[in-house]
Amino acid sequence: MKSLASLPLLALLALTSCATTDTAIKTTENAKPAAKHDHQAAKKGICADAKAPPLSQCAETVTAAFDGKGVLWTAWTNNDFIYVQSSPDKGVTFSAPVKVNAVAEAVAAKGESRPKIKLDNHGNVYLSWVLTLDKKRDTYVRFSRSTDGGQHFSEPVTVNDNLEIIRHRFDSMAIGKNGEIFIAWLDARETEAAKKAGQEFKGLSVYYAWSDDGGKHFHPNKSVADHACECCRIDTAIASDNTPVIAWRHIFDGRIRDHALVKFKDWNTPGELQRLSRENWEIDACPHHGPGLSIADSGAYHAVWFSNSTTQKGLFYAHSTDAGHSFSEPVNFGNAGASHPHVLALGGQVAVTWQEFDGKNNNVQVMKSADAGKTWSKPEVMAQTAEMIDEPFLVGDGQAIYLSWHAPQQGYQLKRL
């Protein structure tokens, strides 16, 4: 296994049941766990004013995406409402916030569970998110769209057609080349059915729904796989043949929590489950770390993930040139205190970002590859703060890759890499 880490990292969140030069390769060694500076800061200034207008700086999370014309769009939550803004100048100025849901609802907007925003080739804006139903964190997957350039949004609809008060969570959305809308999530309907029958069922199931009419209607929900890790985000992407691909943390053999991937044969037919990672992490708890996935125009898959197995610890990157049937030798990166990686490919350029706590500050780190993931630059600190930060992400406008990140009460930032 390749390593870019001087020290491998360990889990940073509590485990619960729910000048560019190529870096030398060296062996992974054990490391001690590191704490993470992620306590929620007390609201201050205008963010503490209940009568203040909605402001993105007061949100805990900001999610971003570019449209086909290079306009940046962001989605964020304030007081149980989702707002959308656009920026024609790469984040220098923004339009006035537009409210998505006219009626307040308990929108999940923290960490790996947050509103998603995507756009199609015609400028239609799509949002998906999770609605929290009760204190047990039972949830529904929700959806809304705008067909007038983000000026107005449709009344939100529930995507999961199972309306039991159970978990339907960690949604991920991808948009096909012909405007297809694909939403996948973790679903507890099989888990709850097994419980009622007195049977054991590990984890949740991966479900999906898709629309071929711009979100006016969704095809019935279908299952992709059972036994997904219940508290880790999933990720979706569209392959070069315009079919969906899903990656998630899977429970193999009832006890090993590594990662899996499914490429669809067509929009109605999931393919066979493929093993993405092979650290053989044996743990009966959820690490709260899901994978990241990006598919280049060449068809290459690029994936990142976290593991804390006995012999392989930390953040990892690998790529596949055969539609996920096999992956390159994983590259281990980051130091103790690193977490939540995200990857984006644009042509032969690939970038990875993650956050890393060094004992004093939260750091936003980036490493880059100019040869489709074969070699990597040294990690670079792009931002640093002693305050809590949102997880960093990568977005692309078709010409360049940008780092997208947010520090609550400090504001949103976009930086070209």
Q: How are strands sequenced across the largest beta sheet?
A: 1-21-20-19-18
Helix content: under 10%
Question: What is the number of strand segments?
Answer: 28
Termini gap:
27 Å
Structural class: mainly beta
Low-confidence stretches: 5-17, 19-39
Report the β-strand fraction as a percent range.
Answer: 35-45%
pLDDT average, as an integer? 90
Number of helices: 1
Largest sheet: 5 strands, mixed
Q: What would the principal axes of the Cα set say about the shape?
A: globular
Order of helices and strands: EEEEEEEEEEEHEEEEEEEEEEEEEEEEE
Alpha carbon gyration radius: 20 Å
Note down, in words, how this protein is organized.
The protein has about 425 residues and is mainly beta. It has one helix at about 190-195, and strands at about 1-5, 60-65, 70-80, 80-85, 100, 115-120, 125-130, 140-145, 155-160, 170-175, 180-185, 205-210, 220-230, 235-240, 245-250, 255-265, 270-275, 290-295, 300-310, 315-320, 330-335, 340-345, 350-355, 360-370, 380-385, 395, 400-405, 410-415. Strands 1-21-20-19-18 form a five-stranded mixed β-sheet, with no helix packed on it. The protein has a four-stranded antiparallel β-sheet with strand order 2-3-4-5, with no helix packed on it. It has a four-stranded antiparallel β-sheet with strand order 6-7-8-9, with no helix packed on it. The radius of gyration is 20 Å and the shape is globular. The two termini are about 25 Å apart. The model is unreliable at about 5-15 and about 20-40 (pLDDT under 50).
